[in-house]
Design brief:
Layout (H helix, E strand, L loop, with lengths): L12 H9 L3 E5 L6 H8 L6 E5 L3 H9 L3 H7 L6 E5 L7 H10 L4 E6 L2 H7 L9 E5 L32 H7 L3 H4 L3 H22 L6 H13 L7 H8 L3 H13 L3 E6 L13 E4 L2 H7 L6 H27 L4 E6 L5 E7 L4 E6 L11 H9 L7 E5 L5 E4 L2 E5 L4
Parallel strand pairs: 1-4, 1-5, 2-3, 3-4, 6-8, 10-11, 11-13
Antiparallel strand pairs: 6-7, 8-9, 9-10, 12-13
Helix pairs in contact: 7-13, 7-14, 9-13, 10-11
């Protein structure tokens, strides 16, 4: 495994550097610990005239909370037009007024990070910066950022390896996820870091949302939501199990979305010929965090019992990451009919659909691909080929228009 000091390049780094060269301000949104600060500091290392506001630092946060306009005075006092790095902007949303003014007056170029779109919207709409900054997301490490891609078999989703291969096995990803700090540690340290992450998230979000009297309710919900990750949750059942009202559960799911902890996958509805379930599926943004929140023992035995759901979760997250990285406007959905036909992922390219099934096995028979076959038949004008992502060593042709590919051939 690479040394802990080894920097891992990110797919968004070139985009960020180009923005800085063109004096274009950016806002990078992503969950905690995905590497936003590291990415920016590495991209800024050759930049002069930098002003840094680390809002996670208590003294700095208190200073600017008392007087947000200080940022205007300090930027205007700079001898040259500076680059201004505001880390964790959601901690002081009112700063966005000052940011808007300074950008409009061309007094600074801003690099802003945030781990909660909810907090940025609370007092000042996030669209305050629309047209003024470039938005992009940062997620946990994608396969290509860990050097795990052997081949690209779906051209529309292809990416090349960006870094040398990390010494990671599939089970490492299924159990511990792919947060940058996590993958570089030994097994015991990974467990400790993931446990710490979940406690910090709970404390921070509870305090920020003024839910201190509901910390028990939210904690119970969070564990159940993690266990349900990858499914369409039944709010009534969750309410019965947790003792939390259905209204609160819906609000809590919205909180998880807004704090970027879950990804929502909606059903594919376009030109459907059958009645489609309309509930969304939710996937926690990282498998390690999901497993820790679900109180899953972080041992190999846990994988044996849950390999199917964990493998599906891993592949869905990887494809969602790629869609953001490629930034071509592609959308991801799932498809399921009342008759039981189902496809785990449907990638909508606009003029074409790519249906994808995910199976945690080395071989998949055509008999087990009812949903994929039905989808290809029902949407033959838009979908000419389907894929099965599995655990095989090499790609396999299953039918004239269905190919099975290993997970690292994606």
């Amino acid at each position: 495994m690479q040394g802990k000091s080894k920097y891992l390049y990110r797919f968004n780094q070139e985009k960020l550097i180009n923005c800085l060269k063109n004096n274009q301000s950016v806002l990078i949104l992503g969950p905690r610990q995905v590497g936003k600060t590291t990415l920016i500091k590495n991209s800024l290392k050759n930049i002069d005239h930098l002003i840094y506001y680390p809002l996670h630092h208590p003294k700095e946060r208190l200073r600017l909370e008392k007087n947000p306009e200080l940022i205007i005075d300090e930027v205007e006092a700079a001898k040259n037009k500076p680059f201004v790095f505001i880390d964790e902007a959601q901690k002081i949303p009112s700063l966005l007024d000052a940011v808007q003014y300074l950008i409009d007056e061309d007094k600074a170029t801003f690099i802003i990070t945030g781990s909660s779109a909810r907090k940025l919207r609370r007092k000042k709409p996030i669209n305050l910066l629309a047209g003024r900054v470039i938005f992009f997301n940062l997620d946990p490490l994608a396969f290509g950022e860990m050097g795990l891609i052997k081949q690209n078999f779906i051209p529309e989703l292809s990416l090349e390896n960006l870094n040398p291969k990390e010494n990671l096995k599939l089970n490492d990803l299924l159990l511990f996820g792919s947060l940058p700090q996590i993958i570089k540690e030994n097994k015991e340290t990974r467990k400790e870091l993931l446990s710490s992450y979940t406690h910090i998230y709970l404390e921070e979000e509870i305090r920020a949302e003024a839910l201190s009297r509901k910390i028990g309710d939210f904690s119970r919900f969070l564990e159940l939501a993690a266990l349900e990750s990858g499914t369409s949750p039944n709010f009534k059942n969750l309410s019965n199990q947790s003792g939390v009202s259905q209204i609160s559960i819906k609000e809590y799911y919205q909180l998880l979305e807004d704090t970027l902890i879950v990804e929502r996958l909606d059903p594919y509805l376009k030109k459907a010929r059958k009645r489609i379930f309309t509930s969304s599926r939710y996937y926690f943004f990282d498998l390690g965090v999901r497993n820790a929140l679900a109180n899953l023992p972080l041992e190999d035995g846990s994988i044996n019992a849950l390999k199917g759901p964990l493998f599906e979760h891993l592949i869905v997250l990887e494809i969602l990451k790629r869609l953001k990285i490629l930034n071509k406007g592609y959308r991801a959905y799932y498809w399921r009919t009342t008759g039981g036909a189902e496809v785990d992922l449907v990638i909508d390219l606009g003029n074409k659909l790519i249906p994808i099934e995910i199976k945690a096995s080395e071989y998949v028979s055509l008999k087990k691909l009812k949903g994929l076959k039905n989808f290809l038949k029902d949407y033959s004008s838009l979908a000419d080929h389907g894929y099965v992502i599995n655990l095989a060593k090499r790609p396999q042709k299953i039918d004239k228009n269905i190919t099975a590919i290993p997970w690292n051939y994606l």
